Amino acid sequence: MRVKRFVANNIQEAMLQVKLEMGKDAVILHTRRFKEGGFLGFFAKEFVEVTAAVEDDYLVGKNNQPTETTVNEIKQSLTWPQIIEKEEDINKENKENFEDKKEPKVNNTSSDELKDMKRLMQEMMEQIENASLNIGLNKIGEQFYHCLISNEVEEKLAKKLVKNCLDTAPPEKFNDEEFIRERLIENICRLLKKPKPINLPNKRKQQVFALVGPTGVGKTTTIAKLAANFAINNNKRIAFITSDTYRIAAVEQLKTVGDLIGVPVEVVFTPQSMKNSIMNHSDKDLIFIDTAGRSHKNTLQINELKSFITAAEPDEVFLVLSATTKYKDMLEVVANFEKINFKRIIFTKLDETSTYGPILNIIHKTKKYLTYFTTGQSVPDDIEIADQRKLAQLILRDDVK
Predict the structure, then answer these.
(1) The pTM is what?
(2) CA distance 103 to 135
(3) Is the bond preceding 314 in cis, omega lying within 30 degrees of 0?
(4) Which of 14, 57, 83, 167 has the fewest CB within 10 Å, making it most exposed?
């Protein structure tokens, strides 16, 4: 086995040297940062040291020298800005090499030494992965990156957002915290896109809206808030239709709100009765359809819900998600409700969570539109059109009122 120490200005350069000289089969044994030079301990320059190893029979060209084609291919594969992603590939590749070589061909090496080497390699790979997360970020960039991560923004998205801010910042603003923060807010707002709430047409035209989602996210309360606002503030004639025959409390809740604002409530049991009910309320400006909460894992329930939505032919379907739901569960809900053909999302219970990153993740991943946030149980007050800037500030843990 041939072992060699590489010293470079940063981890990218060191990895490039290892790749060029030792090839893809090289494994990392050790890595460290150190300072050298300067005067009386000041102005020392920081370097990165990487110790790598490769089997003796490795050849990339004649006389153990890399060919020009190999060099060009490696350099091309590692050119900026893909360097960060390529480093992750190298780390993954090294892991795979290590796992594949459970019995490496090393001469004159005892089993204890092999075990120690494997343990050391595992530790070093973990250190490299942790270090590579902050490649290309200055101190302020690292602070914002860790802020996003702590708010459960996906690592790759967090890195991309911060890196873009630093790459596009003028040199004199590179260490300006307020400038980078504002640029980061702008980038988050751009990802979230402009929200698409209910838009009332100038001419009188009936609009039908349906809310779908899993159980317990607050669909009925959200419908009550929306209807009350349009009835009180816009003087619109409204009707409630509910297919939630599984929860008596949901129907009673809608009837209570309906009585207060003068809105009729109709309960339907079949897709055909849904279609008939909409026709019976042709004189209304807005019809809000409340649906039974469905388990996103139950295909039969989702198909039943789809039959009601198909019969209703709504102008828009809103998926309702709770901000308190785990991101992984949100992804499953979105994937399983896709057959309902929704394009907009309402997030409820923002007042019950302290992490807002999953909202950004979902919008970025699904390319759907934000519409409303709900922030409490009060009807009709605790609902608002989604504000991208406010959400961005919450993600950055700013004090937003």
Answers:
(1) 0.65
(2) 33
(3) no
(4) 57
